[in-house]
Amino acid sequence: MKVVFDSNVIITAFSTRGLCSELFENCILNKQIIISEFILCEVEEKLIKKIKLPKKIVYEIIEYLRNTFSLVEPGFIDSNICRDKNYLKIIGTAMAENPQKISSK
Fold first, then answer.
1. List of residues 6+ apart from 19 with CB closer than 8 A
2. What is the count of structural domains for the chain?
3. Position 84 in a domain
């Protein structure tokens, strides 16, 4: 089973203890998690601007996500599927074919 977290779940998992962090940790151990550049950019931006984490820590989190999750290009999703256009890329990430782990090393 593949799992896609939107940026809010990832941000919450890294910024607080609770349901999101427990779900996140469990899925890392037991599921294939896929992610896209769109989600990574949202996570990076919100960790810096909203959570106010130091950039060095944020970049380490992004690097960890790249090395741990399978990076995909979101598939095309018809704009009539969802009113919020940003969610189209999240849905497209979940629908992507052949997720592969891409290391930045």
1. none
2. 1
3. yes
Nearest 5°: CA angle at 13, between 11 and 19?
A: 130
Q: Is residue 29 part of a domain?
A: yes
CA–CA distance, 98 with 44 (Å, rounded to integer): 25
Q: What is the pLDDT along the chain (105 residues), one digit of tens a residue?
A: 889 999 999 999 999 889 999 999 999 999 999 999 999 999 999 999 999 999 999 999 999 999 999 999 988 888 888 888 878 888 889 888 655 544 343
103 in a domain, yes or no?
Answer: no
- The answer for residues whose C-beta is within 8 angstroms of residue 77's C-beta and 6 or more apart is 88, 89, 91, 92, 95
* Domain presence at residue 101: no
